[in-house]
Write a structure and sequence with these properties.
Elements (H helix, E strand, L loop, with lengths): L2 H5 L2 H4 L9 E6 L5 E5 L3 H12 L3 E5 L11 E2 L8 E2 L5 E2 L3 H9 L4 E3 L6 E6 L2 E5 L1 H8 L11 E4 L5 H9 L4 E2 L4 E6 L4 E7 L2 E7 L1 E4 L3 H4 L3 E3 L4 H9 L2 E2 L1 E8 L9 E6 L5 E4 L9 E8 H8 L3 H13 L5 H4 E8 L10 E2 L5 H6 L5 E3 L11 H18 L8 E5 L1
Parallel strand pairs: 2-3, 2-15, 3-11, 8-19, 12-16, 15-24
Antiparallel strand pairs: 1-25, 4-5, 6-10, 7-10, 8-9, 12-13, 13-14, 17-23, 18-21, 18-22, 19-20, 20-21
Helix pairs in contact: 3-6, 3-13
């Protein structure tokens, strides 16, 4: 088409010929599509990050003052020591987690030591063992395979969500719990609490990236499908607890021990400060399921005493070296009420199924339950669902270029 024919065509006649002498039509465009995201855990952060890169306008609602969800690095110890109360290990096949670790330039270090002896309790007796017998003892809760398969982020796991946070500056609303979700054929609306005042924000799509224990507390209008609502109301979450004990010195090293053990009640014992410099150390007890729930029935100081008594069977010197402790029971955390979920049967498919303009992410909506890999996998799945179902925000834009 010649320029004269193009300018006289219906394309320009419908927009007005006032621009014809000074502008030409370059491309067709619409405003960026607005995506609202509930939850600034890893699944919410990765969806926001990737959709933002693709040109979507994103806003994350986070109920807490921090990001990261069940990534929780505790930095309350002396001598700048830190330990993980949440996600800690990265498996060598967790490619998506490793992708972002590499993208953000975060250094990895081994999670397990290759030197000194491990400990395990067998038939009520303490044994010093090598890696093979140690993994036999831990197999009931975790198949470890080779030591070289496991790494951690040097400096703390929370450096990963913090890296996303920096890329999403200005797009996260902190301390803004969501109260209501509404959707029509044209939009979604989120009502949230901001500084004690109820506010509402409209968007084109919504991503629920929070545990179903929290989603069931949010009013949904109109309600999701009967199948979805049933899963939201009934999905069970396991309990997991951590007790972190700071010691004035790493006394176990003096006995040719590396601080890792398999204890009673299927407890995993970690030397959380393995690889960190300093004299002080932090030993951690990690309980799951029934044993974790039993721990939550105790007051915080009683949890410390219970753990000291338990670890004394493995490390007799721990009580005289103990300085202070920290406990985290995920099933009692008001913003989670559980550690992770294990969907049964058809639940997994129902969980991931979109509800019109509402999509669902989180480790419970993945193939890697309880792992950072699962949270990231689910977030990337939702990104592709939105991009495939709806036009890319940069397509079909109208913009004018001066002649």
């Amino acid at each position: 088409m010649k320029r004269r024919e193009f300018l006289s065509s219906g394309i320009l006649s419908t927009t007005g010929v006032l621009f014809a002498s000074k502008f030409s039509l370059a491309q067709i465009s619409a405003a960026p599509r607005k995506v609202l995201i509930i939850g600034a855990g890893l699944s919410g952060l990765v969806t926001a990050y990737e959709l933002s890169k693709a040109g979507f306008d994103v806003t994350i609602f986070e109920a807490q003052a921090r990001i990261g969800g069940r990534v929780l690095t505790v930095r309350d110890f002396d001598d700048n020591l830190y330990a993980e109360a949440g996600a800690a290990r990265i498996f060598h096949e967790h490619d998506l987690t490793l992708k972002y670790v590499k993208e953000f330039g975060l250094p990895l270090v081994p999670f397990y030591p290759t030197e000194q002896k491990f400990l395990r309790m067998k038939n009520g007796k303490r044994e010093e063992v090598g890696w093979g017998k140690f993994t036999e003892a831990t197999d009931i809760v975790m198949m470890l395979e080779k030591q070289s398969y496991w790494h951690k982020i040097q400096g703390g796991t929370d450096l990963l969500p913090r890296a996303f946070e920096r890329k999403l500056a200005g797009k996260i609303k902190y301390e803004s719990p969501v109260l209501k979700i509404e959707q029509t054929s044209d939009e979604v609306r989120v009502t949230f609490n901001e500084r004690g005042k109820s506010e509402m924000l409209r968007g084109d799509y919504l991503i629920c990236a929070i545990p179903f224990t929290m989603l069931r507390k949010i009013e949904v209008l109109p309600k999701f499908s009967a199948e979805k609502m049933q899963v939201i109301e009934n999905l069970q979450y396991d309990s997991a607890s951590r007790v972190l004990l700071q010691t004035k010195r790493r006394f176990w090293s003096e006995k040719n021990l590396n601080g890792f053990a398999s204890g009673e009640e299927f407890a995993e014992i970690w030397h959380s400060t393995f690889g960190q410099s300093g004299t002080r150390g932090v030993l951690q007890s990690y309980l799951r399921g029934f044993f974790s729930l039993a721990l939550t029935k105790l007051a915080p100081d009683e949890r410390i005493e219970f753990t000291l008594k338990s670890l004394e069977k493995l490390f007799p010197e721990i009580r005289t070296n103990y300085e202070k402790g920290y406990t985290k029971c995920w099933s009692e955390d008001a913003w989670f009420l559980g550690a992770w979920a294990h969907p049964l049967g058809k639940q997994a498919e129902i969980i991931t199924r979109p509800e019109n303009r509402v999509f669902f992410a989180g480790e419970h909506a993945s193939n890697f339950i309880s792992w950072m890999q699962g949270a990231i996998q689910s977030g990337l799945r939702v990104v592709e669902e939105i991009k495939q179902k709806y036009p890319a925000p940069h397509a079909n834009r109208i913009s004018w270029i001066k002649m």
